[in-house]
Automatic annotation (TrEMBL):
This is Uncharacterized protein. Pfam families: Glyco_hydro_18. SUPFAM superfamilies: (Trans)glycosidases, Chitinase insertion domain. It comes from Anopheles arabiensis. PROSITE patterns: GH18_1, GH18_2, PROKAR_LIPOPROTEIN. The keyword Signal applies.
Length: 377
């Protein structure tokens, strides 16, 4: 039986596609390279990528060795069984307009930043090794994903050293940042960072917090007064992040709005109470493919046999679904369309996704890459 496509989805996709084409917005696609080894139909290799959907493709992640040099987080993925570095290099050769970026850090590689960045010798080793890596594998630049710096000056000095080394070859330098005002005020010298890097990728997701109730993980706007009943909670939305960074001197053209292609899940305390703000008893069950408690890829959400009660919150801008005693917050084609409007409204550089391997790349629920297509075709 054929699938009908709502008119609003066609119009939103067309609007965002026109936005990217006419105004040359960035579409930054992080690729969690470990996805290549996922089982049960979730394995995502270089051949699954449609390069036309991204302006920047980001290899996640590299780590930092004891001497300060940049090293692959997973040698088996990078150069062993899956040979991902060679595949990235080949992709760049086949699609020269695509910018390929090496990302260092991530949520599991935080501890090694400080020993490197606070020691001049190890910092110099890091910078030299990064340049060698970019040259060897044809990367166009580096993304620094330090989650999270504890010394603003140390972070800025690291970026300055990298920028100086990158200048002769015109390599790109970008950062991924935890964007809320409560994070940024103690971690980032925003004017200094903005003067050094090419782009700032705002991680405007994982904003649900741990409050014992369901919340959108990537809301565009604040919730009700009852739900967002503190200054901190009222900062947990994308527009608040955007306006804060702009107010502190970040150029709009350097800011990329982060959009998750996965959902955050909860177990409902009472399955019959399943709206935003419903009591929860913990994080949701592992997905059949991603195998991480509290997280589902979009392709697991759209194909779930239990998460069948799908709803949309037009006030905060976010989709959610429930069923089987579980609840998930995620971005849909509709919410991404509205985020495209906000990108245009504030004149941002573009959008960023975590992660391209979590979209419906195989077309389980219809056309392939529906969320990526909604952001940029």
């Amino acid at each position: 039986m054929g699938r009908s496509v709502p008119l609003w989805s066609i119009l939103l996709v067309a609007a965002c596609s026109l936005l990217a084409a006419v105004e040359s917005r960035e579409v930054v696609c992080y690729y969690g390279t470990w996805a290549v080894s996922r089982q049960n139909g979730g394995g995502f290799d270089i051949n699954n990528i449609n390069p036309a959907l991204c302006t920047q493709l980001v290899y996640a992640f590299f780590d930092i060795g004891p001497d300060g040099s940049i090293v692959p987080s997973d040698a088996n993925v990078a150069s062993g069984q899956y040979n991902m570095l060679a595949k990235f290099s080949d992709l760049k050769q086949r699609y020269p307009a695509l910018k390929t970026i090496a990302a260092v850090g991530g949520w599991s590689a935080t501890d090694n930043f400080t020993p490197m960045a606070t020691n001049a010798q190890r910092r110099a080793t890091f910078v030299r090794s990064v340049v060698a890596l970019l040259q060897k594998y044809r990367f166009d630049g580096l993304d620094v994903d330090w989650e999270y710096p504890t010394d603003k000056g140390v972070f800025v000095q690291l970026l300055r050293d990298l920028a100086a080394a990158f200048a002769p070859s015109k390599y790109l330098l970008t950062v991924a940042v935890g964007g809320t005002s409560f994070e940024a005020i103690n971690r980032y010298d925003i004017p200094a960072i903005a003067s050094i890097v090419n782009f700032i990728n705002l991680m405007t997701y994982d904003l649900q917090g741990d409050y014992g109730v369901t919340r959108h993980q990537a809301a565009l706007y604040p919730g009700s007064a009852a739900l967002d009943n503190s200054d901190y909670k009222r900062a947990l939305n994308a527009e608040a992040v955007i306006t804060y960074w702009l107010s502190k001197g970040a150029p709009a053209s350097k800011l990329n709005l982060g959009i998750p292609l996965y959902g955050r899940t909860f177990k409902l305390a009472n399955p019959s109470v399943n709206g935003v703000g419903a009591p929860v008893s913990g994080v949701g069950t592992k997905g059949p493919i991603t195998q991480e408690a509290g997280i589902l890829a979009y392709y697991e959400i759209c194909s779930s046999p239990t998460l069948t009660r799908k709803q949309y919150d037009s006030a905060q801008v976010g989709a959610f679904a429930s069923g089987g005693g579980e609840w998930v917050s995620y971005d849909s084609v509709e919410s991404i369309g509205q985020k495209c409007d906000v990108i245009a409204k504030y004149g941002l550089g573009g959008g960023m996704v975590w992660a391209i391997d979590m979209d419906d790349f195989a077309g389980k629920c219809g056309s392939k890459f529906p969320l990526m297509t909604a952001l940029n075709n």
